[in-house]
Amino acid sequence: MPWQRFSSPAVAHLRLTDQLSLSCCHVVLCLQAAAVKAALLCLGQVLAAVEPGAWHAASRTFQLLLSFATDNRPKVRKRAQASTGDVLAALQNSPQNLAAASEAIVAVCKLVLPGPAAAARAAATASNKQRAAAEAAIAAAVNDVLHLLGALKAWVPLMTGPSLPPLLEQLLKLYSLHQPLLSRHTSEVLGSLIARPGSQISSSQLQQLIELLVDGEASHVLSGPGSAVAASADGDQLSAMAKLLEGGLCRLAEQVPAAAGKLLPRVVHLLVPLLAAEQDGVRYSASGALQSLLRSCLTPELVTTLQRQQQQQQGLSPLQSLVAAVASSLGARYQ
Prior knowledge:
The chain is mostly helical.
């Protein structure tokens, strides 16, 4: 239903609610899950109706709502995440409020997403007596990150463009932990951002993201020494990365065809080995990604551009590299 904007008296009431909200937080935590869910639903509806320019009065209330997004109670957590998504959706026509809400989410990510790495560093220096507590801290930090990543899949496409660089920085750091579950969910968050047509990621941000993936995590997972394919890594992790590269490059091809063309051979080289993966789902994802990329990116205009570049450089050109990658997929290894 359409949201009704608050009048000035209502905004004054919101300020009063804001002053009380954080002081009542501990009380709310003690309530039964059903009561907390109802309270979070109300908070979401109130926040979604805040007038443009009046977000300052609602900021702490929104922070309270975000604090329940990683709650250990599933129903409470899902309600907080859904209400936050409703708020972001309702603020799409209020750029100033949306920007403030997006920055608040980034601030939460900066607190939560580094948690596993920090807990691991603390565990490395823990004594034997502290070992159990350190391991419990790692598990708790990972759970919080997984809960937040689950929420970000719905939130990120609704956030403002300026808020994305610091968020992407935090997300990409999760790959360095080399934890399949975290990597898979991180890839799914990034894939959600790319797949949503209305998401505010710019073409330059998208190109930089794909380049970082190709040079970093995608290369490590898909083709490095002792690669994930050779080690029979988690199939969902591999499929998520394949879909991320596919979605990112296809979108970039729509916006900046020349940039997509330069990256296409490298991405194809990374995806072709997945055709020999042990898991059926991975082979299917890789095959679909390769077909989609070649159809979307390899246009006559791009071929002409690549041919022109081939005449201007020495060594293996991007077009020759692409042909070699596709030809390698016809080998006996992939039959």
